[in-house]
Write a structure and sequence with these properties.
CATH class of the largest domain: Alpha Beta
Shape: globular
Structural class: alpha+beta
Number of strands: 13
Order of helices and strands: EHEHHEHHHEHEEHEEEEHEHEEHH
Oligomer: single chain
CATH topology of the largest domain: D-amino Acid Aminotransferase, Chain A, domain 1
CATH architecture of the largest domain: 2-Layer Sandwich
Helix content: 25-40%
Largest sheet: 6 strands, antiparallel
CATH superfamily of the largest domain: ATP-grasp fold, B domain
Amino acid sequence: MKIVVLAGGISTEREVSLVSGNGICRALRAIGHRAVLVDMFLGLEEVPEDMEALFDAPGGLMREVRVHAQAPDLDAVRRQRSGQRSHLGPHVLEACAAADLVFLGLHGQDGEDGRIQAALDLMGVPYTGAGHLASALAMDKAMAKRLMDAGGIRTPKWQLLEYGPEDVERLAAELPMPCVVKTTGGGSSLGVYLPEDRTALKAALAEVLRYGGKVLVEERIYGRELTVAVLGERWLPAVETVPAGADFDYAAKYQAGGALETCPAQVPPEVMEAAGEMALRAHRCLGLEVYSRTDMILDGEGTLWCLEVNSLPGMTPTSFVPKEAAAVGMSYEELCAEIVRLSLAVDRRG
């Protein structure tokens, strides 16, 4: 098959996406597909007159990339396309239109928020993962919370705030503690703050405004951090994460030694099953398809709390979904092949 692996983009998870994209593209080529990597934001400077030839490009157009300890400088990325307002780089849509399938290796804004899915739907191009509406709902943490609350899925108490810098001091004095402060549309632990006191809360409320005017504040639940992937109609074994430092932040997620991850998590069988069923319920509640990843907390009383659901989980070498697939004997290449198979079976008109 001719497959465009769409990655990069212009979100704070750009580098994570490019590493995911490289891994996916390499795996697809290894199992016989004509796969090429396309950066959604930077696009392709040149394309062949016959677009069929694009899929025979040497090396699948992949290039070396890694995830740095700090989030990427997006202004520097934008300067590479000075004067261009579109989030779609040159020839991106042409390449997608020529493909049999677009494998979405995107994360965060423009990837998980449903917009690229909607564009591909309008073009009639098949793609991997959830559709545009479910993607948008899962990406908006407040909307996802509302749906999970209605679906009886246990989540920490929460409230959605819209405020300006002039309100920070008042809110820092009023909000219940301990709490978590997060942007409604972030990922990779960017825009997430875990203040331990009201001084730190004030700083978090000011800092999170960089990501947008809508802010989610939720009760902080202490316990063991579990994450569970759904693939098709089944859940995979949970991973337990113990950060090497105080928090499981962006650096801890993607730098070697940042966290101790155990897969399968060392929990009783009934807890493993409950975690898997919670992930499957959340996946279905949000209308997701093909695969997803749900993050949750197991508190000291043995109660599971759903934190959030990711519609396009990371596919880097350190990502959870490949580790969970490996735990049931599925190689990275087999995982990518299964995502392709399941995605082609989705009827996007429905």
